Amino acid sequence: MNPRPILIAFALLLSFTATAQSVPDRAAKRAKQRAEYKAQNKVDRSVDEAVDDAFNSIGNLFKKKKKKAEPAPDTNSDAQSSESSPAANPYGGMIGNEDAAPYEPFTNEYSVSLDMEITEIKKNGKTETNTMSMAVTTDQYAVLVKDQNGTEISRMIFNTQDGKTTMITTDKKGKKTGFRMKMPGVRKLAADAAEETADRFEFVQTGERKTIDGYGCEKIIVTDKKEGTITTSWVTQDLSINSKDVFAEMMGALGNKVKTGPNSVMERGFDGFPILSITEDKGKTYETHFSNIKVGEENIDRSLLDVSGIEIQSIGF
């Protein structure tokens, strides 16, 4: 499974569930860049494996049909040096990009925590369910991924005050290992993904309503013009937060200004919060369900932010 940029999911997950179910098609390109980078540079193995584990745990939530692997690069080629090649920007451009503008501290206006359950129903009727928990506070974002047994696989915590990301992975013996680093390139990836979303999806309010988990929801049809998929999303306005607001907060924390106007991603979305979304894609069905939604700094689940007892190593990329 090719890893995917997790912080793009930070920016888009709450706003458009369909985006999460068809994660931006950068996996193949990123895998090739990582292979080239490893061939030309020495990467600390423990850090490299921890980063891969974290990305893979997210990637496994949003599976797509595997593509043929890219051939390994010719390490004897003199075409480009590691300093000038895009491959010198490891992890798909998130950790590199030293030319990025200095990070500006950001305070979130909204605080929320929730669980996101993704169920894949295959052609033969078999199902596979994975769970992701998220928390947003005034100064942090956290994403925790669990396996089908409910055991934590990985966790990522983004600090909006210093722009650093803490990555925590859990091995088979249950030992947790943590690394803290800056990812200056992530703001461009998030901005690119948001810009793509503005033109990629169409939203139609149907007026049809039903109650899910006690929330009054309206049926909204989301068409992915790039992938050709259609998502049925049940959206509520019973919560005191709006997915558009959370999206704007996340983009702001990453140093990106959210465009407004009739063609912006904010205007093309929908008011409210998606509780349940169902996508049909090539014979498979993906159901995404948000639950345990808690709003307000005093109500949210702070366990996702707790790193006590975990040794965190700072990495100076």
UniProtKB/TrEMBL annotation:
InterPro entries: DUF4412. Keywords: Signal. Residues 33-48 have a biased composition (Basic and acidic residues). The keyword Signal applies. The keyword Electron transport does not apply. Residues 1-20 form the signal peptide. Residues 30-50, 64-102 are annotated as: Disordered. Residues 74-87 have a biased composition (Polar residues). Residues 119-304 form the DUF4412 domain. It holds the Pfam family DUF4412. This is DUF4412 domain-containing protein. It comes from Neolewinella aurantiaca.
